[in-house]
Design brief:
Blueprint: H1 6-17, H2 22-35, E1 40-48, E2 54-62, E3 69-74, H3 82-94, E4 105-111, H4 115-119, H5 146-155, H6 162-179, H7 181-189, H8 208-219, E5 227-240, E6 243-246, H9 254-263, E7 267-268, H10 284-292, E8 296-304, H11 308-323, H12 332-345, H13 350-372
Parallel strand pairs: 3-4, 3-5, 5-8, 6-7
Antiparallel strand pairs: 1-2, 2-4, 6-8
Helix pairs in contact: 1-3, 1-13, 2-3, 3-13, 5-6, 5-7, 6-7, 9-13, 11-12
Length: 376
Amino acid sequence: MTTPSCDTLFLDAAGIAFAADFGEARRIFLDACRRQGLKVESHRHPLAAPDGTELACDVAWAGPRAARRVLVAVSGTHGAEGFCGAAIQVDWLLSGGPDRLPDGCAVLLVHAINPHGFAWLRRVTEDGVDLNRNFIDFSRRPPANPGYEELAAALVPDALDGPDHAAAQATLEAYRRDHGQRAYEAAVSGGQYVDPRGLFYGGTAPTWSRRTLEAIAADYDIAGRAALCVIDLHTGLGPFGYGELICDHPPDTPAVKLARQWFGASVTEPALGTSSSVPKAGLVDYFWHGLVGETGCMLTLEFGTRPLDEVMEALRADHWLHAQGAVDWESARTRAVKERMKRTFCPDAPEWREMVLFRGRQVFRQALTGLSQADA
């Protein structure tokens, strides 16, 4: 009998786990949970997918409900990035992950926390808010980002080609030249609270997705666990196919030390300039930090897809499209923009998907091993 190669195993898994659209991703996740005998709790979104079907964030718990050590894995924070995160969750389920849980450990899977962005192939929520900039205290003055204000009109220009677009490009290049690449990235993606139609907008109040995530954490008593590891699954930043573990805990804190103990030297820190990411405002990380405390850690697992400029062009086109008014999902223009978004945040290259699943399994294994050794 011939034993399948490691490559064949991961490629076969990728063929099952990666979906064509949100509806299929949801069906695959629900079926994988059913096969494992897991109960699913669904948080229905008030709006619908482009084809009118139901949108929801689905949640499944694997392992003892009273487990003192818990791994939380979240997909779809940035909507269209959910194809990758959902595939990692499904692969863990179908590869027998629930059957191999260490004693005293459990896993909470949050599938498509931003289902509207997932279904509509957007990085933002239904109200144009970047969920990963939405976790601020809205009773206080929001963080300022003067660099973004200087670039706002150029980032979402009046046209995607012609003189207006050329002028916008010149403005962006001038800022990058005068201030440097890292300052440019911080200005563009660090988070802004002044331009509702713009990129990386944090909103004026907690979004449906934020409120839902907070409710899930409360329902499952996440704060009451003795040891906690949270992995938020993302794509679009860094080298092609590489899964970077980004740690936004303050440097030299117990959480950072645990992250390095559990995951090794591959952990990066934006605050120290060692990450492909720059420091940002309003991250979901800051919500989880308050629950993790000093006995766990929260990390972003970020998979690179395309060069940064290509990623930015896809985002600019999508924001431009939605700034024009109601979107005709069947139009050639819309299909082109949305297909570009999907390719940008979930490449269809078999080698990329294989790398994603390998790294996903590795990180889940490292997290559960670390949790199993934690004091509880």
